[in-house]
Amino acid sequence: MTACKSLLSFTFQAWRQSSSAAGAATCALWHGQSAAGWPSWTGLRSYSSSFGQVTDPQNIRDFAIIAHIDHGKTTLMDRLLSQCGTTLTHERAMDSNSMERERGITILSKYTSFMYKQHLVNAVDTPGHADFGGEVERILGMVDGAVLLVDAAEGPLAQTKFVLAKALSRGLAPIVVLNKVDRPAATQARCDAVASQLFDLFASLGADDRQLDFPILYASSKQGWASLTLPPLGNPPERASMAPLLDVILAHVPPPQVSLQEPFAMCVAMIERDPFVGRVATGRIQSGQVAVGDKVKVLQYESGQVIEQLKITKIEKKAGLGKVQLQSAVAGDVVSIAGPGDAAGIADTIAAPAVAQALDPGPIDPPTLSMVFSANDSPLAGKAGKAVTGRTIGQRLAQEAEASVSLRVKAMPGGTEKYEVQARGEMQLAVVIEGLRREGMELAVSPPQVLLREENGRRLEPLEEVVLEVDGPQVGTIIEALTGRKGELLEVTPVAHGFGAAAADSSSSSAAQQQSSSSSEGSGSVGSTERQRLVFEVPARGMIGFKTFFAGFTRGEGLMQRAFARRRFLCLAAAAAAAAAAAAAAAAAAAAAAAAAAAAAAAAAAAAAAAAAAAANACRYGPYRGPISGSRKGVLVSMSDGRATTYAMYDLVQRGTFFISPGEDVYAGMVVGENNRDADMDVNPAKEKHLTNVRSVQADEKMVLPPPRAMTLEEAIGYVAEDELIEVTPAAIRLRKQVLDAGQRKVAAKRAAAAAAAAS
């Protein structure tokens, strides 16, 4: 391992010198082209022509911006659009969804296009949160390059590895942009350290020589400039703009490798619904040409069967923040086609009648969490919502699954109008539920369940790589909390300058040393009082509800990033070996003269290919790590219907923390608070004080209750227990028991205890 690290270090230094020389030459060439230096923002517009239709695929560039969450993807897209002639009325222009604006994150991948130096540039903005990684996977098949955006202070984080691995597996050669270099922490030494970390990351993910020779630019998306060299102190260069980045994109991203002579074929990457023209399919044309009025068919991506025949009624593409209608489009361009019916979906192929085989959409990682959606059947059902039937909820969930490739909806057996929704994580499920809630629907949602896998008689579960930054005195408690959730500590490093960047020259301590140190020092620091970065590998089920604990314990000052774990070199070696075996078996099949030998070799090739796919997918699955003890206390459960009163709640305030306020409607079986003890307790929050001739108003006014604990939808998903449901209405989010009657709950608990005893 030491020799391997030394070889990587020597290789990086050699690459760094050649890269610096190439960057200086390119910079000189740029200055040679422009006697006045880099063009200003206004001057850059003169380099961009007005949007027009491009008929030569050699003049098209398709690329995606990929990065960890909050590293500046959407802001960079804003600057590219504004400097290429698009007028922006507000920041984060690509985040058009209301929930995207409220949360400050990108949820759906969105594309747009602009003209630059007679080239049509199709740019895709992708999400950075791990729960929406499927949005990244589905669009990588319609681009030829990627801009990997990395915060110069923080360096590559968990989601950086995930999106980079996906891009490299697709054969893309990313362009690295170190963003936010206007920060004081983004010194030359820090940027060099991040570049070294990125080179090691590329190498560990199996990048080839072409992908390892990535260009590096320095940028400040906030200030709107990019540079081939780091300006002094991170200040913007004179007459700065995004032109250097755009030039590198034109030079480094290859044109689409397509053929205009072959029949039309397009793989669907996005599905939208237009109130005027119906369903609209978006994707990149892989071959041929298409025009309005052409008759095409839809091939299902799994079976390859024709599932629909249609006539194209409209072709349009996004340009800037608007849309442009086209009469025809050519291979290599990204367009939207109106006309598909309800049968067509994401990953299907829209093609000319002569096409017989569906296009390969590429692998998509399966979901990891599931929740069961059903109609709200509580005593308060129908008082706040408009759509309250299970059938309406099912239809709406089916529409949601059309637009998200990582979301799956299955009807539960038995005709109960219950639907299992499978997704990547808690946030994705919360976004789906919030969308239904805002549309006036009432529903009941079950606790999240992790989707396990069975392979060779072993149970496997999804694993996540969790990166946390906390103050030194908090390290011991965080380690104890995550190890109790079956997490494995991988490394601990000090954070430099408090800007979220690990010191480049600090050595990572082993997990065993850190755990022994934490146990010897209790819940204090791990040998230091400075801020620390912790890296864990935790089962996905262990992270359910941890975000609420982490935010409360660190008082909002801790940082936590999550992504699906990649099992490092072992997984990559297994996948590479399986792929090599598949290639060797295929070669043997081609060379075999006898039919029997060819058939055997072909079977070996298929088995090896399946092994390669299994090895690649196993990168984020590991052996089941056993049950996790519950970390939640018991709850206060209402035993009566009515309206909560101050008189009743004042007598119960010593029992725990309330989730409700006086005056709210309650019903038997509704969870109204958290108990101070581990067991559940039935209470009566609707009890009223009987009127007597000695009652005084002043006595009631002296009853002061602490404020209730307000619970968001994501917190409720992480808090709800196995025997509870989340009641979601447009007016409120409540917790309730699945069995409302207290007597029936006791009988069910006794039966469950007896069954557990018999099983043991």
TrEMBL record:
This protein's record includes keyword Plastid: no
Gene Ontology cellular component? cytosol; ribonucleoprotein complex
| Residue ranges of the region described as Disordered | 504-528
User: Pfam families, per this entry?
Assistant: BipA_C, EF-G_D2, GTP_EFTU
Molecular function (Gene Ontology), one example? GTP binding
Q: Where are the transmembrane segments?
A: 569-589, 595-616
Enumerate the CDD domains for this protein.
BipA_TypA_II, TypA_BipA
Q: Which NCBIfam families match?
A: small_GTP (TIGR00231)
The record's listing under PANTHER family reads: TR-TYPE G DOMAIN-CONTAINING PROTEIN (PTHR42908:SF8), TRANSLATION ELONGATION FACTOR-RELATED (PTHR42908)
Q: What is this protein called?
A: Tr-type G domain-containing protein
Which organism is the protein's source? Tetradesmus obliquus
Q: What is the lineage of its organism?
A: Eukaryota, Viridiplantae, Chlorophyta, core chlorophytes, Chlorophyceae
